[in-house]
Amino acid sequence: MTKPIITRFAPSPTGYLHIGGARTALFSWLYARGAHAGPGSKFLLRIEDTDRARHNEDAVTAITEGLQWLGLDWDGEPISQFERADRHAEAAHQLLKAGKAYKCWLAGDGLDAAREKAREAGTRFTSKWRDPKEPTPDGPYSIRLMAPTEGATVIQDEVQGEVSFPNHALDDMVLLRSDGTPTYMLAVVVDDHDMEVTHVIRGDDHLINAARQQQLYEALGWDVPVWAHIPLIHGADGKKLSKRHGALGVEAYRDEGYLPEGLMNGLLRLGWAHGDDEIIPREKALEWFDLSGIGKAPARLDPDKLAATNQHYIQDMTGEAFLESALPFLENSPSDAQMERLARAADDIKARCRLLSDIGSAAAYLLNERPLEITGKAAKPLKQDGAQEVLAGVIAKLEQLDDWSAEAIDSTLKSFAESRELSFGRVGPPVRAAVTAGLPSPDLGITLHAFGRIETLSRLADQR
């Protein structure tokens, strides 16, 4: 029987949901929700809010809303690490009582001096209170783990493989500060244990933390979770992702006009692969995702590729669904007449949008109202010899047209050109200029169909 898989996403509430954090959450969610996960599997959310000076409740909201927008649901209520401080302290005192941790009175200048002395000597920093040769003082003390000093701590990582850390390079980390507050390292281990986390999936910048945390698991006599440290995301230039590379938060991508499905697919392909598949919808991701598909090399975020992936999901939308999602990106709310045009041209508009926010430029020709200002290059077709006669003839033909479909309009315009022994290059451009004022537009039949009979004829008549 397949065992339950329990993963967690544990962001710090200091800002938006970072794109790298969103990918970590996605991988953790897929692994717990995927087809290979047994009954009882869970994806949990823990807010690592022990740093109260940097805690931001608005950031908590931004993180949860970002996860919800991406469709990454979690089991149960989000867990506050700060609220579990007593439990963390309990674990530290458990180790102290078992002789696997010790009280340390080194602090301030004394601690700095001891660290500097060890650094100069090229030796491992070890507090003198690990094996005290003098009476212990009164006053506040921290609690340090009595870490092994010989051998190595070996991490068996599902992504990085076997990674060995010499124990002489890992000092006795503080578990409980002198003011009684737990450190991050202690809190993470206790929380993951109590939450019954089976797989810790996170960025490889935490790999050194895994060595220290594994020492703590072993000291407490707890099962060590499966480690999976995924490479960080880099920009297209190969450098660590930063503000210079553009949007970093999920909400920024949402506000740029990404669909959650498009961004999710893009994030999935940052460091994970399933053969040569590029478009991987959610249901396939849940079926295929496994830790073995994660590469060791840093993934590169290519904005053009990300937008192209999003475009695929826009094309999959119905015209109605596209408009519902894209209309908020227009600067002004469309009038009823404009909405009718947009609805008729929705399939064409979405075909020219990589992002929902592209609707403004893709649909500009439909939103430009009479009287049109046609100047510069856009006006040239209207000034060519015979343009006025062409417009008059086209109006007469279109007035007689019963079927106002794109196909019928195209056929009528071509028939008109043939009847006058004109190339279509003498007919199409002045008609398009008169109707669109030179703004980018699709095939002429689609364009005139979108405007409708009355509006099309009125625009043509304006330019005679």
From TrEMBL:
Residues 5-306 form the Glutamyl/glutaminyl-tRNA synthetase class Ib catalytic domain. It holds the Pfam family Anticodon_2. Its EC number is 6.1.1.17. ATP binds at K243. Catalyzes the attachment of glutamate to tRNA(Glu) in a two-step reaction: glutamate is first activated by ATP to form Glu-AMP and then transferred to the acceptor end of tRNA(Glu). Monomer. This is Glutamate--tRNA ligase. It comes from Parvularcula marina. The lineage of its organism: Bacteria, Pseudomonadati, Pseudomonadota, Alphaproteobacteria, Parvularculales.
